[in-house]
């Protein structure tokens, strides 16, 4: 059974754990490391979640141990990953979700501490490989890929959509805007932040800012390197985002042909990753969606035969966390 540890008990760390419980996977979570959190805090925020509701089951904490449905999970509070007891605990995979150890030097500390693989739940700096499930995860090599970045939630939405367009029609160039729920990186009230726009109260304004999703797209789909750019608009909602992609295609298409390509992919190569909706839904309806991207077919549009617009919804928390669990299971199937 794959032994897993989580480093960082923030939004993604907690939801990866929840997603594994929901999935009924046989993953063995043996430790949670959170530098500033006590056992009661870890227990409480696993049990109660303002966005995703209460986690069912028996959950309690005692001193340095979390009990979940009878399973004992060690609680740690270590600031330096190199000092974590991964070797003693027999940890196979560490989910690195602090946001602090995204570069090669920081992530390597987990390997030095004794684990076999590190999954960075963010865009990484010089990882062994950047993978987006359903798009380029087939290139995973157990022998050489020990530090794995799963890119961002937005890249995980954009990449499957772009892959369908690129494979079916070719993309000449494009621009994406993610209308994104605010995140913990922003401020509840005006405060200090290196990005002066993100320094403003998140729940009061639409906040334009940067996104690395378009640049990361060229890493997972090399044929699109240098052909895409994008921005993010952070909006006053707690969860669920939408990618607005406008692309010039290499061949003339119709709205029906584009939607048909997405429908076909959702039933074949991107099953469980991409879905298509024909319902008149809004963002809250996608809360809890496990898909990386849900194409809103009603808003697919084509102008002049080659300029296409696609809207794709994604639960930027839950959908991404489900992909992390998928990747851990993939590593287990590959023998780590």
UniProtKB/TrEMBL annotation:
Domain Glyceraldehyde 3-phosphate dehydrogenase NAD(P) binding: 2-153
Gene3D superfamilies on file: Dihydrodipicolinate Reductase, domain 2, NAD(P)-binding Rossmann-like Domain
Binding site for NAD(+): 11-12, 121, 316
Entries under SMART domains matching the protein: Gp_dh_N (SM00846)
Catalyzed reactions per annotation: D-glyceraldehyde 3-phosphate + phosphate + NAD(+) = (2R)-3-phospho-glyceroyl phosphate + NADH + H(+); D-glyceraldehyde 3-phosphate + phosphate + NADP(+) = (2R)-3-phospho-glyceroyl phosphate + NADPH + H(+)
GO molecular function: glyceraldehyde-3-phosphate dehydrogenase [NAD(P)+] (phosphorylating) activity; NAD binding; NADP binding
Site residues, Activates thiol group during catalysis: 180
Residues annotated to bind D-glyceraldehyde 3-phosphate: 152-154, 183, 211-212, 234
GO annotation, biological process: glucose metabolic process
Keywords associated with the record: NAD, NADP, Nucleotide-binding, Oxidoreductase
This enzyme's EC code(s): 1.2.1.59
Residues of the active site: 153
Origin superkingdom: Archaea
PANTHER family: GLYCERALDEHYDE-3-PHOSPHATE DEHYDROGENASE 2
Family: Belongs to the glyceraldehyde-3-phosphate dehydrogenase family.
Name of the protein this chain belongs to: glyceraldehyde-3-phosphate dehydrogenase (NAD(P)(+)) (phosphorylating)
Record organism: Candidatus Methanophaga sp. ANME-1 ERB7
Gene encoding the protein: epd
